[in-house]
Amino acid sequence: PGDGIGNFFLKDSLLFVPHATVVPDTIAIYKMQNPLSWEYKSSFVVDSYVLNIKFYGHYAFVIMQNISQVQIFDISDLNNITLQKSIEVPPTNKIYSLELNQNRGLLLLGIKDSLKIYNVRNPINPVLISSKHIGEIPYKMDIIDDNYFAYIGSGEAGGIWFLECWDYSDSSNIANVDGW
After folding, report:
1. What are the φ and ψ backbone dihedral angles of 173, each rounded to 5 degrees?
2. pLDDT of residue 19
3. Which of 43, 58, 64, 72 is nearest to 11 (CA)?
4. Which of 33, 61, 69, 152 is most buried when burial is the number of CB atoms within 10 A of its CB?
5. What pTM was estimated for this model as a whole?
């Protein structure tokens, strides 16, 4: 698919490939016929180098380097991919990671020294439901199941931390359960 590829992202039989050496930055989309056969479908322009993409329904949630927002694209028509909404964070905060809890329709953002949780069941109208100060940068997050997630932190308290949350709407319900 080309050079300047830093990562790739799969959704069903589609491969999303950000191209870092193309100006402007783009994401090319290929359909997999079989593991050795790919068909180019389309591409769309983004604002900067793509760090991560998560999918919810026919929406792609994209975070980029040096951009303090999550851009939400409607990918239902591969010939007409459109930016539907952006989730803005203060420019002094950088988004380091994102994860989607598919079952609950929740977007988890790792921002500077906190976690922000949005309800994205209606992806073009995301609602901030909780924010928790964690005191370190959450570089990578993963959903373990509907009630547990983990992140890799930085700084003196760095390591892998496991959090439990049965009710995401209240940050006091998000508790560290283990870590190292």
Report:
1. -90, -5
2. 75
3. 58
4. 61
5. 0.81
